[in-house]
């Protein structure tokens, strides 16, 4: 299902006529539903300072240590009403897939108590549930991209108040064909003992369990560079897996112009012919709004506001540390001289990543981001008969327009 470039161009052109104070385009009221149109366009550039692996090699190799790509081209229709009904239909013209496409019914008119049917982000991961257009860094943390279950078809129930929430979901495959499969369920609970304007303390706990697609699982991660074609840590295909369970723990503190957050994931794959496979990882990050703005908080998720002075914009500085451990096995010497070591279990590797970045939000529709990523990874290589370090650095830039 390819969306014509002319349609995307027309959508962006229409958005340019939206007054700067508004974040969406009002369409009309049809059948008691107030319909609005939103969009997000992101263009990325990655410059690789490779160490061992060619991070933009393989089928995408262009003979250069750089990649440039339209990262997202999201088009979204939203409706409020009639009554307590809300609906959304989203499509990414770049990735050729559906985004949030669902209907929500607010029980008793309470936005914190609802039933939801369709495709939506599953109740896990603070970073995954946060708005893509306001990501703190160009790439989500490696652990978020690896362990978080994103959009799936299903049904959910949510309930809460201003300072707590509980969400439960049962889900299946993605709406778009040939993408993620595997039925399962998930739940997330949040609690904010402090929830005031400009000051929030948040804790969260989530759990998801789902079947693997065709009994096959592969756990791997890019080095926090979305345009990289190589994964520096990789479990390889495990063809005897039955079910995956992932526990997520999250915390966040907002104090005026400062925000700190972190998440830990522990994932276990049940295997039928081998020992179960367990891997884990975490990230911690901090962000400072130099121009003094703070964040909002609703439904257990932070929200980035507009610049206090749209003309001069909003500046952010941030830093993040990621760690992943995909090793769940041992390496022992081979008793036969000259033969490679014996691997017992899975040695998918370890990866530590530092990311520093700056974001600039101009008015209500434009964002510029620049990140520098420093990677320290180690993985067993059968050809080298030992562990190999690969420590690249990556410069990343993003230009974003949204309405």
UniProtKB/TrEMBL annotation:
Gene3D superfamilies: Porin (2.40.160.10)
Keyword Signal part of the UniProt annotation: yes
Organism (species): Stenotrophomonas chelatiphaga
Protein name: Porin
Matches recorded under InterPro entries: Porin_dom_sf (IPR023614), Porin_O/P (IPR010870)
Segment forming the signal sequence: 1-23
Keyword annotations of the record: Signal
Entry annotated with the keyword Ribosomal protein: no
């Amino acid at each position: 299902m390819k969306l014509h470039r002319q349609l995307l161009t027309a959508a962006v052109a229409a958005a340019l006529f939206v007054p700067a104070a508004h974040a969406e385009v009002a369409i009309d009221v049809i059948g008691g539903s107030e319909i609005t149109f939103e969009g997000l366009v992101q263009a990325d550039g990655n410059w690789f300072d490779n160490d061992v692996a060619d991070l933009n090699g393989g089928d995408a190799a262009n003979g250069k240590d750089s990649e440039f790509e339209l990262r997202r081209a999201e088009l979204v229709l939203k409706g409020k009403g009639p009554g307590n009904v809300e609906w959304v239909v989203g499509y990414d013209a770049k990735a050729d897939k559906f985004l949030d496409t669902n209907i929500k019914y607010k029980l008793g008119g309470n936005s914190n108590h609802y039933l939801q049917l369709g495709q939506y982000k599953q109740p896990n991961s603070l970073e995954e549930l946060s708005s893509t257009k306001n990501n703190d860094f160009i790439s989500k943390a490696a652990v978020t991209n690896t362990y978080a279950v994103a959009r799936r078809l299903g049904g959910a129930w949510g309930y809460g108040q201003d300072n707590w929430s509980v969400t439960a979901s049962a889900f299946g495959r993605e709406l778009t064909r040939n993408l993620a499969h595997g039925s399962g369920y998930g739940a997330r609970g949040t609690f904010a003992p402090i929830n005031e304007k400009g000051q929030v303390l948040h804790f969260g706990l989530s759990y998801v369990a789902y079947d693997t697609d065709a009994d096959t699982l592969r756990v791997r991660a890019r080095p926090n560079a979305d345009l990289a074609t190589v994964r520096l840590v990789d479990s390889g295909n495990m063809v005897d897996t039955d079910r995956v369970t992932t526990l997520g723990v999250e915390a966040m503190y907002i104090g005026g112009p400062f925000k700190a957050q972190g998440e830990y994931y522990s994932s276990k794959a049940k295997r039928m012919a081998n020992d179960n496979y367990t891997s884990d990882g975490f990230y911690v990050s901090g962000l400072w709004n130099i121009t003094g703005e703070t964040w909002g908080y609703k439904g257990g998720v932070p929200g980035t506001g507009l610049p206090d002075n749209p003309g001069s914009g909003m500046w952010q500085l941030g830093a993040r540390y990621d760690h992943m451990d995909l090793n769940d096995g041992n390496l022992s010497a081979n008793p036969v001289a000259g033969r490679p070591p014996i691997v017992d279990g899975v040695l998918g590797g370890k990866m530590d990543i530092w990311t520093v970045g700056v974001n600039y939000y101009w008015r209500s529709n434009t964002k510029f981001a620049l990140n520098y990523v420093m990677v320290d990874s180690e993985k067993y290589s059968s050809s080298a008969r030992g562990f190999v370090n690969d420590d690249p650095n990556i410069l990343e830039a993003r230009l974003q327009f949204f309405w």
